[in-house]
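RECORD CONTENTS
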Amino acid sequence: MNKYNLADGMIIINRMNVKNNIPRDILYQLEPNGEHSYIGIIHDAFHVKYVEFLYDWLEKMDDFKSGRTSFGQIPRLQKWYQRNKHYFSKTWKDQDMERWMSHEGDATLDDLERCVQRMICHFGLQEKQNVQIPSINSCLINKYRYGGDSIRPHRDNQTTFGQNPTVIGISLGIEREIIFKRIEYNPVKMNSIKLDKERMEEIRISLKPGSLFIMGGSVQKYYSHEIPKVEMNGVRYSLTLREFIE
C-alpha cells in the first residue's frame, strides 16, 4: 500500500492505483511500409483519489519552462524528466535550451512510472505487430494553462525514442481534445506534416481527466497529432511517458 498526503489528509491507495481496464483500440491498421499504426485509449484508467493526488502534485510545481521557436512563444509550459538527466534529443544542434534539460525526478514520478509500466505489461501490446512495450525512463509534462494554450501538429519521431516509439499519455485537469491527421510518410523528411490528400483522415479523441492513451507502431510516421485551442478556462496537464534510448 502507498500513502499520499493530500489536502484533505492522509489517505491510503491501493498499490496499483489503477482500474482493471485494457485499452480500446481506436486505430490498428496495416500501413504501406508493412508495419502497423496503433492508437489505444482508456478513458477511466486510474482511481479518482490517485488522479486527484497527481493533479495536486503538479499544481504545486513552480518551475515549468517556457520558450520560443521559429513560430514565436510556445503556447504552454513544460518540464522534461529523464532518469539519467539526458537532454531531450541527442541529435539536435542546439543542446542548451532550458526547457529540454532534464529536471530531477521525485518519488511521485518514480511511482507513476512503475505503475504505468506494470499496467502496459498487461495490455496485450506484444500481440500487436511492431507495437513495442517500452521500458519507461522519461516523462515530458505539458501544462496547458487555459484553453488558449495548445500544441501544433507534430510527430514524436525523435531518434532518441527509436524508429517506432510507444508513447503513453496521461491527461489530468480539464478535458481537451487530441486530433490525429493522416500525413504523407517520407523517410527523408521525418519532420514533415504534409497532409495525405489521397487519404484524408482525421481522428478526434476527448481526453478526460485520468484517461490514458497509447501511440505505437508506425503511427508517428503516418499521423500527426495536436491539441488545438479552445474557448474554455481551466488547467490541463499532459504527461507522456516513454523509453529514452541511450
